[in-house]
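Ticket #4471: structure output looks truncated?

Reporter: J.K.
Steps to reproduce: submitted the chain below (326 residues) through the standard prediction queue, then opened the result file.
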Amino acid sequence: MSSSRSFLFAGATAFTGVALMVLCGSAPAAAQTIDEVVASVDNNPITLSDVRAFAAATGTHLPDYGATSSPNFKPALKQVIEQKLLEQEVKKYDSKIDDSQVSAYIQQIEQARGVSDQQLQQALAQNGLTYAAFRKQIRLELEKTLMINDEVRSKLRVSDAQVKAYYDAHRNDFMVTKERYKLAQILIAVPDNASPKQVAAARAKAEMVRKLALSGQDFATRSEQYSDDASKTKGGELGYFAPGEIMNQILDAVKPLKPGQISRIVRTQYGFHILKLEKHEVPGPMPFADVKRAIRDHLLDQMTNQQVRQWVDTQLVKQHYVETLY
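Returned output as attached by the reporter:
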């Protein structure tokens, strides 16, 4: 599958830069302590060290000496000023994000990265960040997202024609090269050397749980409630598998399914499995209907990024006092 399709399945949650750098062990190194003021926003100074830190975090090189003469300096300074303007404006949203939203977002980050709360806090500590400071940064990112949605994104529109045109122009980005199944499961475990009575009880429980799933109850919730597999912490999500990576008994049960359907009960040495087929990718072009929502979101992201800068440069800069010394 083409790697350029990655934006389509990045998940519902987009991680903050801080979160990704911490979890990947690549938080930017501390900038040099240089107190030279190079600009200000509403009389709040921006120092050369601020610009250096931003440049390092974005992969932009500034020399150790004569940084302000570097061709990279003014573009980096402009972006720092833009960030400061956004930070000033976002203060209007201080009361619109509560602790429960911050906690839910952090939980999404942990689930997507496959780490526990303890592992996250260890990663933060290794990078010199406290959990409280991390939560504060997440809150700020959520406030910024809300602000940008209110001020910019919600006012943009992507037409069906634009979505289709993008699909037609990037067909190679939507080619599946290998067959894959995306599965979720509920496992009712059967202990080793189980008695017939224990096996019968496990099967009866599996049948009961399957009926709940078939009745329309949320599969992820039922997995969290009943499954004996570690995947229950992720709503039963197992991920993607090629046919050769799936046990024969399970493959036989999921092959006839359409995405969204629930399998019959499958017995393995681990117990009784109830599978849900979430996606089935087959070699060839991905149907337009399957990707049009993701394409629309992608185009909206592009438009938003362009319009945010225009909003900052044409409106916010007039509402705040900005002074540059270079």
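Triage note (M.O.): checked the attachment and the full token line is present. Residues 288-319 form the longest helix (32 residues).
Status: closed, working as intended.
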